[in-house]
Structures are given as C-alpha cells and as structure tokens.
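Q: What structure does this chain adopt?
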Amino acid sequence: MDSGGSGLRVVVGTAGRGPLARGASGEPVRTGSRGIDPGHLAEQLVPMARELAAEAGIGRLDTAAVGAAGLASLGDALRAELPGALARELGVRRVALAADAVTAYVGALGPRPGAVVAAGTGLISVGTDLAGWRRADGWGHLLGDCGGGAWIGRAGLEAALRAHDGRDGGSGLLLECAEGMFGPAASLPGHLYPRTDRAAVLASFAPRVAECADRDAVAAGILRAAARHMADSAAAVCPEPGSGSGSGSGSGSGSGEQLVAFTGGLLHLGDPLLVPLGEELAKRLPRARRLAAEGDPLHGAVRIATDLATGSFTLPRDEKMLCVTSPAGEGGTGAPDVRT
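A:
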C-alpha cells in the first residue's frame, strides 16, 4: 500500500506471480493529535484488501508493506496499532511499515546503496549504504522541502508580487501568469493563507514558472535554484563511493560509483528543471551515476513485501523509517508463492 496526500493505492498478489488486483481510495488518511490516524487508515485498507484478495483468488494475506507519508515524524500510533489490526482483520503475519520516502527509494533503485530524491509538491531525499538510512529535508513547505513544487511555486509568486510592487527581482511575465491563474495580485494572500491545502496550491504554479523559463531570467533563476537544492539534498544523503554491502545490488559497489535517482511528479516540468539539475548534480556529486527510476513508491512497497515474504529482505531496519514486525520465532521467510 502507498498512502499519500491523494489517498491510498493498494495491490494484492503473490510473490511468485506479482500484483494480481489493484484498488485506490481518493481519501487521504487523517492526521490528528496522535499523528497518522491508524483507525482511519485501517477503515479504508481492510475492506479494500478483502475485496482485492477475493478478486485475485487469494484466501489469506500473509505479508503487508505499508508506505505512508509522514511516518517518520507522525507514525508512532501507526507503528503501535496497525500491525495488530492487520493481524486481527486480515490474518497478516508480517508487516513492514515504511516512510513513503523509503518506498520511493526502493521503487526507484531497489535494495542497493545510493540516494533517491523524491520531488513532488514537497521534497525529501533518502540514502542508504545498506547499513542504515539517511534523510535530508522533507520538513514541509513552511520549514523546508527546498526545490520542491511548492517551493518553486512560492518563489514564482513572490517574484510576481515583487513586480506588482515595483521591487527589484520581480518578473512581469510571472505576474501576468499569476493574475491569469489566481486573479488580482493583491488578492493572493486571501487566496492562500486560509487554505489547508496551500502547499498544493503553491505547487500548482510551478508549471507556469517552467513555461516562462525560456524567456524570463527570473523564472529560469528560480528553477536553477531549485535544481541546486535538489542536488544538495542528494549529496547530503548519498553514501561514500564504495560503501555498502553490495548485497544483490549489481550496482558497482566498491567501484567508486555513487547511484542517484530522482522520482516524483516535479520531473514532469521537463528540460527547464532537468537541464540545470544535471549540471548542478555534476558539481555536487561528480562521481555519481544518475539512473532513471525503475518504479514509483507503490512498486517499492510491492518489492518490500515480496522480499519480506520470500526471505530475501536485505534493507536496513530503522525505528522511524522502516520497521518490520513478524511472529515470534520467525525470521520473516516464506515460500516463493506466499501471499503478499
């Protein structure tokens, strides 16, 4: 399962045959005083998992991998309660609870050392040497997520308001785009500040910044700065060349090579972001080999569940980023066709 700002995505299958049934919920899991609400997540996940298991012809679910946005900071209640709920309701014996950045990592690179930058509305970087995890940013649009969609959109709207005021650093073209999208510039604070989804609203302006970049130096500068932040985050978590156990990686561990991948919707901005990103990455990590992401966070959750069910799980466990529960006395192994 992948749980994010747009709801849940769930697949059910077997380790031998892969995903057999898929479902989705458009309702994001609530966050309250206890953090991520385990009851609300289970209310959505359990009936969906039952329906998908029936559709796939699977009698009992054995292993679950749950990737959840906010798990590292807001996941205490989820870690305490969800494994028990899945055991009671679905018969699940092994549960991996992972931060969505970890499932994004595994979806992009698989279980091998390197660094992954997940860039969408927000931005977080995760790296591992297969002995532990490192995280950079992911602190939300008020305190960080530097270079993410909300960051780019906010910078573009700031430049628009600078032009509106007649201050240096403004962009008349971005002002025109902002007013075409949101109405008069003076109304922007009233549009944004009361909204609970303001990060998404800010990010919705990022494509306009990219569209202006080839004819507006301010817009191009914003994307260059975003690329620099993304490269900085990758460098902060990327393991040293040659580090890591290389278990099953085929990645050239020990060759002095650093693997880096970028994933997330922000990459759809195209060359206005990707060209400076390549240049900035070459400056910050000159020995890095940039790979195309193999899959998305849901692919990562499937990979974690499959490896856990078949006894080939090699990722480092971490109290906040990736915790695994299994029955007492079991090592988390299973037959190749164990239900996941």
